[in-house]
Structures are given as C-alpha cells and as structure tokens.
Specification:
Layout (H helix, E strand, L loop, with lengths): L1 H17 L4 E2 H7 L1 H4 L4 H17 L5 E4 L5 E4 L14 H13 L6 H13 L26 H10 L3 E5 L8 E13 L2 E8 L4 E6 L3 E7 L11 H11 L4 E10 L4 H6 L2 E6 L2 E9 L2 H6 L5 E5 L1 H16 L1
Helix pairs in contact: 1-4, 5-6
C-alpha cells in the first residue's frame, strides 16, 4: 500500500510539473491509472485532495487556477519548484561526508551515500574530498534494535504504533499504544519520545526494551506534537540528563568511567572502592543497574530501593 501511494504521488507530481497549462481534476483522473481505478467520484475526490495536500507538505508548490469557463485546474510551475544552485566549501563537504558515514550500521547507509552522490552531481566540486582531512574519524551511531526502522518511519509519517514494552522493574512486558514523535540517541542508547494513549501523557521508551514487532495503526494523532527542542528536552530528562539533586554511590576502583566523568566529587573509600557524588535525576537508577556489581548506592534510600527493584526484576528474567 505504501509503495502504491508513493507511485501515485510521483505520477501526480510529474503530471503537474510536466504541463504547460492547468489540468483539471477530470484530466488528471484520465492520466493517472490509480485515479482511474478509484471507483466513485467521491472516492477519487478524497484521494486527490489527500495527495495534493501530501505533495504540498513535501514542498511542491501547486497552483490552483480558474479558467474563463470557471473550471478549476492545477499545475506546478518549474520555476517555482526549482532548487537554487548548491555550493559547498571544503568544511561543509567534509561535514556532509562524515554525516553520510554515521549511518553505516543502519539501512540508512545506502540513502546517506546516495544523497552525497546527488550533492556532488548538483555542484559539489570534484576536487573537494568530503572525507579528506577527517579520514581518521569514524563516527557511527549504532542501531541494533529491530524497532528502530519501523519507529523511524512512523515518526516520519505521523502514524500511531502498538508494541510490547518491558519496563526495567517489570517481569512481563505490557502493550503500549503510542503516537511517536521523535527518536533520540543518549549515552549510546536509542529512545522514543511520544504520546502514550493509554496513560494520556507523554512518555519516553528505550528501544532495547521493546519486545516483538512494532505494528503500525491507521488514524490521526490525538495529541499535538511538540517542537524538536521540547522533544529533546523530554528525552534528556527521562534518560537522566536533567538532575536536581545529588546521590552518593560506591564504585569499584577501575570501573564505571562514565560515572566518574559525571561525578561532582570522588574519594577513596578503601578495600578497592571509591565513593562518588553524582547528579541525581530521572533515569539514574536504570543507568546504575547497567554497571551491575561494580556499583552500590549509599543514598538516598529511594534511589537504592529503585536500583534493588530493577536488579530483582532482571534476576527473575
């Protein structure tokens, strides 16, 4: 179905870009096979209006013109839909080259390298090597979760999803109905921010805790999607980046370097342990659990209890 719609949109765009005069709905219906198979006039009209709106959202400038007989026609003038010449200096080209290499572990790798080739064809100088002086850098964003790609597409298409999610302190996963907003990577882990329909509130989900397949659902979003900055702040808060107090932990000597980097103070506690004061915010308990027996929470008591609960849930399998 997705391929059929994409083909229909492409055919409509080509018709509107290829004509020198406005085309009426009737002419467009007779020119595009999918419209000819639409059935009733009402079905065609709904399909055409949706397609026209989708093309406009994608950036195509479609004009509506009324002729002398009062008939409405549509066209997309080439001069209104032509990108300006692309000029990139060496640093910009290098940045794009690094960005293309970021996705080498995901299925986006082909699209990223293809985009770079298109930019070179559109004006990137041949003597500019996008990898050149930065060849020693090998950036990548690891994407191992099977849920990443379907959620990325759902965020792009604004499509609600359903998936089974296992909280860190739960023995069994539960079903979540979510309107996905955006994916963010924090501390090497991917998170989904979105609207949880069952709870009627925004939530953040760690992709590694999604079990089974992500299933797409029809229908529109019921909650307003916030801007990008708000989503990133939400993910940062749930991932433990926002701290409003401190916690005291014991860390085995020579272990937990990410924790040491966050520490406000560090002192030797003896017997192969160090005592650290670290910022305490939402998500710290989940992060501490990842260090297993190398970490012991001293205070506050609530954080210690949360870590113990999560460890017990892991032990139960």
């Amino acid at each position: 179905m997705a391929i059929a719609k994409a083909e229909r949109l492409m055919n409509l765009a080509l018709c509107l870009l290829g004509t020198r005069r406005p085309l009426s709905k009737r002419e467009l219906r007779e020119s595009i096979e999918a419209y000819m198979e639409a059935g009733s006039d009402d079905s065609f009209n709904r399909m055409f209006e949706r397609d026209k709106d989708d093309l406009r959202e994608l950036g195509l400038v479609i004009e509506t013109v009324e002729n002398l007989d009062g008939e409405v026609g549509y066209l997309a003038r080439r001069d209104s839909n032509r990108l300006p010449p692309i000029t990139l200096d060496a640093e910009e080209a290098a940045a794009l080259g690094l960005a293309a290499k970021v996705w080498q572990q995901a299925r986006l790798a082909g699209a990223a390298s293809g985009a770079l080739q298109k930019l070179r064809a559109a004006g990137l100088p041949e003597d500019v090597d996008p990898y050149g002086s930065h060849g020693a850098l090998e950036p990548h964003i690891p994407v191992h979760e099977a849920a990443f790609e379907p959620l990325m597409l759902a965020c792009r298409d604004r499509r609600p999803v359903v998936f089974d999610y296992r909280k860190a302190n739960a023995a069994q996963p539960g079903t979540r109905h979510v309107e996905p907003w955006a994916l963010e990577c924090w501390r090497g882990h991917w998170y989904l921010a979105g609207w949880d329909r069952d709870r009627g509130a925004e939530r953040v989900f760690r992709l590694s805790r999604i079990t089974g397949k992500v299933r797409a659902r029809a229908g529109r979003y019921t909650a307003e999607v916030p801007d990008v900055v708000t989503v990133r702040e939400t993910v940062a808060g749930w991932a433990g980046e926002t701290a409003d107090r401190s916690a005291l932990i014991r860390l085995r000597s020579g272990a937990g370097y990410p924790l040491r980097a966050k520490a406000v103070s560090v002192r030797e506690a003896g017997d192969g342990w160090d005592e650290l004061e670290i910022p305490y915010g939402h998500g710290l308990d989940a992060w501490l659990v990842e260090f297993g027996p190398d970490v012991v929470v001293v205070e506050p008591a609530e954080l210690r209890a949360d870590v113990v609960d999560r460890l017990r849930a892991v032990a139960k399998g």
